[in-house]
Structure formats: C-alpha cells, structure tokens
C-alpha cells in the first residue's frame, strides 16, 4: 500500500482569515478544490472546506459577503504524516468525520489529501482486479 506522501497535493492553497466566505467559495470553484488553508499573519490557523461553507455559512442564512472565513473554518487542522499509509489516512478521515487532512513532513505542513484523492488511489489499485472473477 502506498504512502500519503505519494498522493499529497503539494500546493498549499491559502486564504486570509478575514476573507469572506463568498470569496472562499469562488476560489474553491475556480481552482477546483474542496478546501483552503486559513492564514493569519503567515500562520495556518485552520481549514475552510466546501462543507463548512454549506453547513456553517449557507445553511445559517449568513451574509456570505460579510462573514469572514475564520467564523466557519475548522480548527485545528487534522494532520497526518506523509510517511503514513493511505489506509491510515482513510481510517483517520472516517474516525474524525472529515474529508480533508493536512499532510506534514517532520511536523511541517506540506500539502493536503482529500477523500477524492483516496478514491482515485483505490480505483487505480483495484482496477486490475475487476473482471478477473
């Protein structure tokens, strides 16, 4: 089984903690990602996901143009070491009920892994087995 480090999306996409929820939603749409790390003064203080936008912003009827992402972000960021297995990431996401994990290397954030990444990985490793029955 592969390691998380092999699947990680290494570009750390950040958004300022004061940015509006609407701005975050637009960036996620435009960049085709489901999460952004929330930055306050050069430090990652949380993660905002498409689920956070829907459940904590839209569902509450908030003014998404005025609401800062720091009010809906998830903090702290659930993290996993790059050397851990893909199965470990799967288990951790299931146990924590999250769809994104920050990936660290020697304690330093290096990227993010999502449920979508896990699905693509499992599809790749299982495809050769399909049709062999």
Q: How many distinct beta strands?
A: 6
Order of helices and strands: HEHEEHEHEEH
What is the count of distinct domains? 1
> What portion of residues is helical?
25-40%
Largest sheet: 3 strands, mixed
State the low-pLDDT regions, or none. Answer: none
Please, what is the average pLDDT? 91
The Rg value, from CA coordinates, equals 16 Å
- The helix-and-strand class reads alpha/beta
CATH fold-level topology: CBS-domain
Write out the CATH superfamily name.
CBS-domain
Count the DSSP helices. Answer: 5
Side by side, the strands of the main sheet go 1-2-3
Shape: globular
Task: Report, as a whole number of angstroms, the end-to-end distance.
Answer: 22 Å
Beta-strand fraction estimate? 15-25%
What's the CATH class label?
Alpha Beta
List the helices and strands and how they pair.
Layout: H1 4-7, E1 14-16, H2 21-31, E2 35-40, E3 43-49, H3 50-58, E4 79-81, H4 86-96, E5 100-105, E6 108-114, H5 115-126
Parallel strand pairs: 1-2, 4-5
Antiparallel strand pairs: 2-3, 5-6
Please provide a written account of the structure:
By secondary structure, this protein is α/β, with parallel strands linked by helices. The chain has one domain: CBS-domain (Roll). It has helices at 4-7, 21-31, 50-58, 86-96, 115-126; strands at residues 14-16, 35-40, 43-49, 79-81, 100-105, 108-114. Helix 4 (86-96) links the parallel strand 4 and strand 5.
At a glance:
The chain is of the alpha/beta class and 133 residues long.
């Amino acid at each position: 089984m592969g390691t998380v480090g092999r699947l990680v999306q290494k570009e750390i996409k950040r958004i300022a903690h004061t940015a509006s929820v609407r701005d975050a939603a637009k960036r996620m749409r435009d960049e085709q990602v489901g999460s952004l790390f929330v930055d306050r003064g050069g430090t990652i203080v949380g993660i905002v996901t498409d689920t956070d936008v829907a459940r904590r912003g839209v569902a509450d009827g908030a003014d998404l143009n005025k609401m800062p992402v720091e009010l809906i972000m998830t903090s702290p960021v659930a993290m996993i070491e790059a050397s851990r297995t893909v199965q470990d990431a799967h288990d951790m996401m299931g146990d924590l009920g999250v769809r994104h994990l920050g990936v660290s290397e020697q304690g330093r954030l290096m990227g993010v892994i999502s449920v979508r990444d896990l699905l693509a990985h499992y599809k790749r490793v299982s495809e050769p087995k399909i049709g062999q029955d």
